[in-house]
Amino acid sequence: MQDTTWRIGFVTAFPPGRNSLNEFGFHFVNHMASADGVDALVVLADDTDAGPPDVSEIRANNPNATVEAEAVWSFNDAANPLRILRAVRRHKLDAVIINLQFATFGDGKVPGALGLLTPAALRAAGVPTGLILHNLADNVDMQDAGFTDSAVMAAVMNKAGRVLTRALLLSDYVALTIPRYVEFVRDSYGAKNVLLVPHGSFEEMEEPTFGIPDGPKRKILAFGKWGTYKTVDVLVDAFRDLIGRGYEDLELVIAGTDSPNSPGYLDSIAAGCSDLDNVTFTGYVAEEDVAELFTSSAVTAFPYTSTTGSSGVLHQAGSYGRSAALPDIGDFTEVIEEEGFIGQYFTPGDASSLADSLAKLLDDEELNAEHGERNYLAASGIPMAEICDWHITHLNRVIEQK
Amino acid sequence: MQIETVSHRQDDAVDDATPSEETWACRILGRFDAHESEQFRSYFEEAVSQGTKTFIVDLSEVDFVDSTALAELVRAMKQLRQEAGNLILRRPSNAVRIILELTKLDQAFTIEAAA
Description:
The complex is a heterodimer of chains A (402) and B (115). By secondary structure, chain A is α/β, with parallel strands linked by helices.
């Protein structure tokens, strides 16, 4: 497609580290490594206790590609912009893409905010910089998301969020995954460098089996980082409700870990439902175990009370052809339906309503299969490899304009 | 979606195109989305298998297009450019123009506006 090739840097959370967006980072690198126009891909990863960034699987998948990786930044380190800029120079990169949500660089206000100045710092240094922005500060309820208990502080943080969004918009281009967010940022910030690049599906998979899998138990799966606006209290209550209604062949699988803002949350939930012997807490789910987690489930549940955009977990559930009980949150509903997903909706925070939605999908196998197929089509719409091509197209344009 | 194979090769021109043996064209009508892009892909693959270098897609009658269908066009553009060919989008409707502009892929495609 093009004659010139580049050394591309990719700033991201990355396995074996478990920080948010590490899975997107892994799959993006896996496909970007062999994209037309990429001479070498250098992963500028987070430094975590889990060990150095592991690209061995990616190298095996892309034997003709050059993939390097270095842990160059740390969660809550105020020096991240400087550390990343130095790494970009050390690796002699032609351009950089940053995989980002607002809490990527830290949950502390100062290091978190300073980290968001990284795109501006790179651009000021003359480095062509693209940003994949997974959420908008304007859409985060700071109180509900656990960043503060005070309404006044939430308002201050929202103002600060707008300032930081303007800093992020200093990137050469900012890719958002949802059309209405592109329109919002263009209208609200007057930004001209914002564009739509869909999320992309992680794997090109064979069409899954739709409907409720065979097994002694029908599994209800909830997957995520739990404790702030993503809580499972209501789901556990809904599960008790279903048991009370006579659904005796159910298992509730709560997969994933505590949100960084809510350490100890899942332990408290486990203690509260110790009387139920058919509730499983998996803890962190390794990449190789994700497929089995989803394909063995009869239905997925998203017991959120507010959202910060679309849902990466819903994309995963769709990839495996799963149906979903989803909260009827106006913005969330519109966003995911725009993407082609469908859910059996419930009133957020209402355990009985959630139980009704789950029961509907458990009782009606045809509906369950139909929803699973719709979600599969939505999730498998654009393979990640093609999304990488879109980014290369935009980076080329930026590099040529420099 | 309806797809009209309005022209391919010299004897079956589309509007004012200047066809040649290496030019194929089609016109897409109505919805162009994830569920309906298979038909476009089949026709395009047939054209490629016949050695086409230029493929024209008339989008003037498209009333809805989603990003998956747009990805289908990007895929086709990439495939042809790898063979030193090109994909031309002819007279994109407002619906198409909006998503091209949202994605800024209007700067990547060759677009023929209305005459």
